[in-house]
Amino acid sequence: MMWTHAMEWHWLESLGLALFWLMIILLALVPTNYLRDEWMTLAESDLDEADSRAVSGANG
Fold first, then answer.
1. What is the C-alpha to C-alpha distance for residues 29 and 35, in angstroms, rounded to an integer?
2. Which of 6 and 36 is assigned the larger pLDDT?
3. What keywords are annotated for this sequence in UniProt (predicted)?
């Protein structure tokens, strides 16, 4: 038996587990958000390039 069971600190184990999974989820979402922002920036720059080609009349 763990010493935490004798002191009735079950909530501490539950809190630790909840914080652990929250950290895992946040660490998974941060790169996703960063990559999405980078992809949107690249997409916008590609659209700007296409617009400038259309205005100048250059094909290719």
1. 10
2. 36
3. Membrane, Transmembrane, Transmembrane helix
Q: Would you say how long the chain is, in residues?
A: 60
Q: Tell me what pLDDT residue 3 has.
A: 62
Four-residue CA torsion sign, 18, 19, 20, 21: positive
- Do 19 and 27 meet the contact criterion of CB atoms below 8 Å apart? no
Q: What are the C-alpha distances in Å from 1 to residues 32, 49, 59?
A: 41, 67, 75
In tens, the pLDDT along 9-39 reads: 778 888 999 999 999 998 888 888 888 888 8
Distance between CA atoms of residues 22 and 20, nearest Å: 5
Instruction: Give the helix ranges, DSSP H, for 7-59.
Output: 10-56
